Amino acid sequence: MDVSIKAPAKINLTLDVLHKRDDGYHELEMVMTTIDLADRIDLTEKAAGGIQLESSSGFVPFDDRNLAYRAAQLIKGRFNINKGVHIKIDKKIPVAAGLAGGSSDAAATLKGLNQLWQLGLNLEELAELGVELGSDVPFCVLGGTAIAQGRGERLTPLPPPPPCWVILAKPPHGVSTAEVFGAFRQEKVEKRPQLEQMEAALAAGDFHGICQGLSNVLESVTLDQYPKVRLIKEKMQRFGAPGVLMSGSGPTVFSLVEQENAARRVVNSLRGFCRQVYAVRILGGLGEPNRLE
Ligand code: C5P
After folding, report:
1. I need a labelling partner for 202 at 20 to 30 A (CA). Which of 34, 64, 88, 169 fits?
2. What is the pTM of this model?
């Protein structure tokens, strides 16, 4: 039996670090939403008990450094599954980019194995398993648009943003989330997200309110360490994108744009400057996948 499942990327509309916790993690408050840039995970059952990984990307590891591999290990161990699985990852989401690509692959693997091995777990149970793999995995299990608190695992669904284009630009290097959190200093933060304002803008479907509310305190680390990330942000702003922000710990910068011709203008402004540029639709829980050609 085979199962094929989509693993969409997320962007942060807000990201606030409240404080450092005793367990070494940071207490977060963020708003995340899914976008139509997705990996595809194909799962094929194997009679022999092992986990095999195959990927279209040279950037992903094929062993237990890969979160999808760890998701399969977790399910096999927790539910005493003797069968094996071949996991094929068709990779479209850039790696180490701030877009939760690895976490989304893990979430899709949990969901797919739940089907393949008929475990009967609901989304909350899958999200609880997911937090053992990484802080963003529970959100990726649920998808849509949500406030994420705690390490990222306490989720409150929100209405999706109105339909718009998301232009993403990823500089050639990746960043380590652990290093960015390690270098974070509250006193360097210039602007903090206003959660209530973002909630109100989403509830009202107020595109410009959402753009004005975009805010990520981790920019205070990554924009300083990587001048190219700051330059991409400035370029997008200069070419008229109403809302521009770095996603997660970076280094991907995105802009939200309502009109297709404005989206094309932002994409064109980045040509020759940044090789990895994507223009996709926001998903956020609603809407059909759609792509800017
Ligand atoms: O949970 P995950 O393994 O994805 O997190 C990667 C790293 O990011 C953690 O080891 C930690 O250094 C940092 N992190 C954090 N606080 C969070 C989430 C992640 O400090 N809430």
Report:
1. 169
2. 0.95
